[in-house]
Amino acid sequence: MSDLSEFSLIQHYFEQLTAKRDDVLLGIGDDCALLQCPEDEVLAVSIDTLVENVHFFSDVDPESLGHKSLAVGLSDLAAMGAKPKWFTLALTLPEVHEVWLKKFSQGLAKLANEFKVQLVGGDTTKGPLSISIQVHGFVDPEKALRRDGAQVGDLIYVTNTLGDAGAALKLAQSELVNESFDNEDKRYLTRRLECPTPRLNLGQKLIGIASAAIDISDGLVADLGHILEKSSVGSRIDLARLPLSASLLKLERAEAEHLALYSGDDYELCFTAPANHYTEIEDMFQGQCTRIGVITNDDGIVVIENDKLKSLKNKGYDHFSNS
Ligand code: ADP
Ligand code: MG
Fold first, then answer.
1. 34 by DSSP, 3-state: which?
2. Domain 155-311, what fold?
3. pLDDT tens, 112-137?
C-alpha cells in the first residue's frame, strides 16, 4: 500500500507517460482533453475493458498487462484500417501498488510510443482491478474496413498464425499436455497470449484492397461469422491452409486446427478481398497473411477437410453463453 494521492498518482505515472503529439491542444490535467481533428477523415472510436480473473490472471506480468490493455483497442482500429492517435484510460485499482503501477505504465507506454498514440486523459478509482481503454483513430469514411462489404467470390485471408493464444490459455489452465511443448514453445505461446501485436500497418495497407475486415478476438469461426452475417454471405475454409505456428503444430493437427478455429485472443486480422487483388496481396504482404478460403453462398462456414465438405457451428467465445 502507498499513501500516494489520486492526484499525485496521475501526475507521477500518467501525465508524462506517452510522447506528445501536435494535435493534442490540451492533454491530461483539465476537465477534458482538447484534440485537433483532421478535416477530411472521421473519428474511429472503440473501448475495451480487462477485468482481473475474467480477462487476465492475477499473477500476470503487469508490463504485459499494460501492453495488452492498449493492444486490444489498437487491434480494433487496425481492423477498420484507421490511423491511431489518442487513448484514454479508466483504471480501477484495489490499492496503490507502486511496483505494479510502474511496470503496468511502462508496458502501456512502450506500445503507445511505438505507434505514436498519446494518453490524453482518464479516470482513476478504487475497486476491484479493472482497466478500460478507449482508443481514437481516423479513417476515410468511404474506405473504412467494415464488416459488411464481403461479396461472393472474394478471397478470405488471415494474418500471421492462429490458435497460439488459445493454446497458451489452455496450458495455463492445465488443459493441454505440458509435455507437448519445450520451454521455448511455452514462452512463444505465452507471449502470443499476453502481448498481442495490433496489426495497424497491415490494416492501413488494406484500405482500397480489402472488402471487409475484423480482428480475431473471439476465434476465427465466431469473428469470420460476424463478417458473413453482416455481409449476408457464406464461406468455405480450407482447413489444410490454416496458418499454424511451429509451436502449435507440436499438438496433434486436429487439436491445433480446433484451437485455430475456435480459440480467441489472437488479435490477428481476418479480411476478404476481391480475387483480382490476389497478386497485389501476395506481393505486398509476403508471408504476413494466408489465403484460407473464399466467400460463397453457403449457409455460414463450410470447411473443406480431405476433399469433403463439413458445416461448422458458430461457437467462439461468448461471455454470456453457458455452453
Ligand atoms: P475530473 O474529476 O474533472 O473528472 P480527475 O480528477 O478524474 O478529473 O482527473 C484529473 C485529470 O487527470 C483529468 O485530465 C483526467 O483526464 C486525468 N486522469 C485521471 N486518471 C487518469 C488516468 N488513469 N490516466 C490518464 N489520465 C487520467
Ligand atoms: Mg474523475
1. strand
2. Phosphoribosyl-aminoimidazole Synthetase; Chain A, domain 2 (3.90.650)
3. 999 999 999 999 999 999 999 999 99
